[in-house]
Amino acid sequence: xxxxxxxxxxxxxxxxxxxxxxxxxxxxxxxxxxxxxxxxxxxxxxxxxxxxxxxxxxxxxxxxxxxxxxxxxxxxxxxxxxxxxxxxxxxxxxxxxxxxxxxxxxxxxxxxxxxxxxxxxxxxxxxxxxxxxxxxxxxxxxxxxxxxxxxxxxxxxxxxxxxxxxxxxxxxxxxxxxxxxxxxxxxxxxxxxxxxxxxxxxxxxxxxxxxxxxxxxxxxxxxxxxxxxxxxxxxxxxxxxxxxxxxxxxxxxxxxxxxxxxxxxxxxxxxxxxxxxxxxxxxxxxxxxxxxxxxxxxxxxxxxxxxxxxxxxxxxxxxxxxxxxxxxxxxxxxxxxxxxxxxxxxxxxxxxxxxxxxxxxxxxxxxxxxxxxxxxxxxxxxxxxxxxxxxxxxxxxxxxxxxxxxxxxxxxxxxxxxxxxxxxxxxxxxxxxxxxxxxxxxxxxxxxxxxxxxxxxxxxxxxxxxxxxxxxxxxxxxxxxxxxxxxxxxxxxxxxxxxxxxxxxxxxxxxxxxxxxxxxxxxxxxxxxxxxxxxxxxxxxxxxxxxxxxxxxxxxxxxxxxxxxxxxxxxxxxxxxxxxxxxxxxxxxxxxxxxxxxxxxxxxxxxxxxxxxxxxxxxxxxxxxxxxxxxxxxxxxxxxxxxxxxxxxxxxxxxxxxxxxxxxxxxxxxxxxxxxxxxxxxxxxxxxxxxxxxxxxxxxxxxxxxxxxxxxxxxxxxxxxxxxxxxxxxxxxxxxxxxxxxxxxxxxxxxxxxxxxxxxxxxxxxxxxxxxxxxxxxxxxxxxxxxxxxxxxxxxxxxxxxxxxxxxxxxxxxxxxxxxxxxxxxxxxxxxxxxxxxxxxxxxxxxxxxxxxxxxxxxxxxxxxxxxxxxxxxx
Length: 875
What we know:
The chain is an alpha/beta fold. Helix 11 (302-311) packs across helix 28 (729-745). Its EC number is 2.4.1.1. Keywords: Allosteric enzyme, Carbohydrate metabolism, Glycosyltransferase, Pyridoxal phosphate, Transferase. Belongs to the glycogen phosphorylase family. InterPro entries: Agluc_phsphrylas, Glyco_trans_35, Glycogen/Maltodextrin_Phosph, Glycogen_phosphorylase_DUF3417, Pyridoxal_P_attach_site.
């Protein structure tokens, strides 16, 4: 029989055990080994069956066991120590508190998904895991972040396989009362709520759940409340589910409702109001509209409000292809804003302008969430050095007239939260070497350039650690594989072969990630005979563990999974290659710990960052990857291998896959496997161990989320906070009025004539070290010298006279305008490089409150017949 109502019965903890509840509700336990060990000792058997979730554990412990623990002095001492340690962690000064004054009082960090722990399944892949690691690292560093997301009642789907290997999705219902979250309440005990106005006089209401991530509050909005009609209750049903309107409502709730939730939380708790708002991908972009509306209610007009909001906003793009960006029909967006809907005080046309693709090649009727994110943020970044370059190219249409290199999108390379992803055995080995506290500090806050202490760990210890972790992985794979085959309909009598799957002595390769086509799950199958030879090599075999989920609507991705599953079902190789369904955080940790090589073979440059290889590397796993994302930036042959790519623009995709697959097989046959199995005088793979050591020593410190968050604080959050403080109401009005004036007058801004000093004008050759005198005549129309900067731009030139590696020098006005209103600018140009060299002149808007000269997307350059020959050949 089916229950007509479901509710949660919580245990009543004896008074001495009350601190267990606080420890369970703060998700620091998910990366703090001593706290996890404490919970495991409560009931080891139930800890395993609860999937290491303290909330579920405490909900199922027998009262007799609780009474026993309440009288156990040794356990109570451990409990007191853990509670005191948590209190010190959340209240004491950390890295952020030791920095100089001027840092943001608080930062609000918005993301559609957060991967904190498997016990709170609110993530689908890398974006969510990165967001979770960002919160954890901010907590470790003491950065006053407030996380903002949605609470999905079904989370992302659970994955199983049919008998023939087809992905099947399941959406178990998540009861918030059984999750490590608490309801945010008003002073009178009623649930705190936010509401959005919908067309037709309807409303969307949401409660606010609070997950405590160490020091960081994570606010999660939940629309499954009685005040909503059925359709509105389902807005937060699934992560990345539903059609366009469903997704639009999710993103309106995340952005607009999220700002209202932050205001509510700060009002109720006294937390400092955020000075900086960080939009993690475009899904939360509507947060800028809500903040503009707040300022309009205080007397600013839309333009001034826009400038004030932009000053304190950071936008991070994770998408290297336009197809990965959320885009909505403009009529759908227009219907949900303005009179009778949300933000009625803002003209709908102004809202639409923020997201329209008004650049060559754009779709004029689509509202682009990333475009809005960029227009609402004064500072933006990609997530690796290469991805920053790709993003500048992809969004260059928003800054016409500027070379992609000058598009104001920087990069902060992602990092991973080492305490979450490093195996306890790795941590213990480090603690034996340098002590527990120094190891914790090195993995969380980071700051050092090298981990030289790794060099003092004996080779034998390194190799025994790697073998131990590989053996644990073999056990875990067999357990999961057996469960998967039972779900596929196999009986126990059919599964005896699973006891021989994988071998703890064999080179183990991991490949686990989402399964869009560009990640090329099945590249390894391109030449199946060659792959079989690798798997079954009599002296140097390899074994491969694969996992991943395809989006429920992506049948192409599901076919890739089915193709790999069918290959791995072959009795000839099924002991050497396995596919594990239901990839998630709990499985990922075992894979990162136990694999020897982490494989990544995306189509370059479509991997924005690719952090799975970082997590593996921190456990001594070597990367074998296409030079994409972070690997393009930090690869060295000392600690891994680069798969050559055939990424020319004329390369046929099938031919490209053939070439790159052949390169992958060559590397495995000729370099990777021989290095693993080669033994030195002491019977150990000395050269392999040295690569592991170099990975940890040189690469390890770079990979930390602590390094990443420090970069955000220093390069983006602090400048944004300063800009936010400078853009008070009067300054915002001034900047908005000035921008309006400049845009209106820019068509009159011209570069009329350029000349150089007489000596250079007569020759196309100049000596290195020569200084040219530039004299430029410009027209500024209704603008004055205070509104612009006239620049000389110089550098080497290519075959088409395009300047590369440019440097800029500001020229100065020489006196008053002439009778025609033209200004003369002068300045020196130093010829400091040899070879083909050239220069040009341009005019940019200039104002003290601009973050970049490219901010307005306006530039004036000479016409082709304006100047004398600007090419100078240096010898």
